[in-house]
């Protein structure tokens, strides 16, 4: 039986953390800034692509069915990990940075669905034609941050003060690079050797840039076990049983790649910590909790399992690339909280809530966001 950290231990731990935080009276985060992809996008993709595309599936029902009760541009049935983090910090949900009428005084969300860690120009130069022509990579998002800054603070001193008390999150990003590379036919071995180091380096460069702006707390999330997603299980189905983890039914090769990339990222984060000892750099682990849900789904209330999507167009994992969630020929399950996967790629609100809790109070962020 797998060790389950959540129920009692986690409750007592959370309680003690909260009490400790209350008594030590450490500073609270006054704002949150996030860079990333669909795991955290709160509307940028829809704003960016509405003038370009006739149908945006993530902007259609049943997206948002559980919490907002209408689509918001979030890739889930409800709240994302970032939304639960904002709630726990007593801050409003982060507005997408491209919203023209929003207030960014409590932070901004630069994440875009499909965003890559490496630049579009890099992929274009290498003829990787499966990367969609949306110019929203990590470095572009950092450019948006630079452009927004004058409206947030006017002197260098003011900006430093603002960023010192802010929580910055860089990631998850890089997962989409791997999706596009694999779709182009680049072998997982070559992705590992050629692209993962570049992805990790660019995430690290982004963190360093922010530190140089005066940022004092940065969360760097890794990736989920991507071999457990209904999309990968459908698109890369193998006739050979040995390609699957017998405990979870997940694809071993993609999970190995995710683990490899996470390990490299974690080593990079440790290097940054040594270099910038005055900065709290937190590695946030998406892999372990999601892998636990896949190992023992019923234990966490996921009675419909971890490798079948709630919303989809049928098939063994309820994922069909030509009838994805948001199209009229896909349907959603009655109770998304009994599934880990929402649409075959992204997680349900119930899953996001578990992950957020484990990052805020432990044990899956190193150190937990709310341990001072
Ligand atoms: C911004 O405008 C959009 C569309 O006009 C509206 O739906 C949204 O609620 C507005 N947001 C804010 C923060 O005012
Ligand atoms: C990495 O990021 C930097 C700036 O943040 C950018 O100039 C560079 O092109 C990126 N590398 C790749 C391969 O996309
Ligand atoms: C993406 O946008 C940046 C500025 O934000 C620009 O410098 C770059 O040329 C654009 N890349 C492509 C491929 O359009
Ligand atoms: C990309 O394609 C163009 C045109 O087909 C070719 O000239 C160029 O050498 C290719 N670049 C790479 C890196 O393969
Ligand atoms: C399945 O994969 C294993 C390990 O790669 C290999 O040894 C075996 O021959 C494969 N079986 C079939 C039926 O292809
Ligand atoms: C997706 O749906 C089409 C049309 O019904 C079908 O031909 C195809 O086999 C389905 N794909 C999967 C993976 O179920
Ligand atoms: C689902 O609908 C889309 C758009 O209407 C269509 O392109 C696609 O072929 C349909 N897929 C299936 C499996 O019926």
TrEMBL record:
Glycoprotein as UniProt keyword: yes
Superkingdom, taxonomy of origin: Eukaryota
UniProt entry tagged with the keyword Phosphoprotein: no
Keyword set, alphabetical order: Glycoprotein, Hydrolase, Signal
SUPFAM superfamilies (alphabetical): SGNH hydrolase (SSF52266)
UniProt GO MF annotations: hydrolase activity, acting on ester bonds
CDD domains: SGNH_plant_lipase_like
Residues forming coiled coils: none
Pfam families, per database record: Lipase_GDSL (PF00657)
Signal peptide range: 1-21
Family (UniProt): Belongs to the 'GDSL' lipolytic enzyme family.
Name of this chain's protein: GDSL esterase/lipase At1g28600-like
Organism: Ananas comosus
Gene: LOC109707789
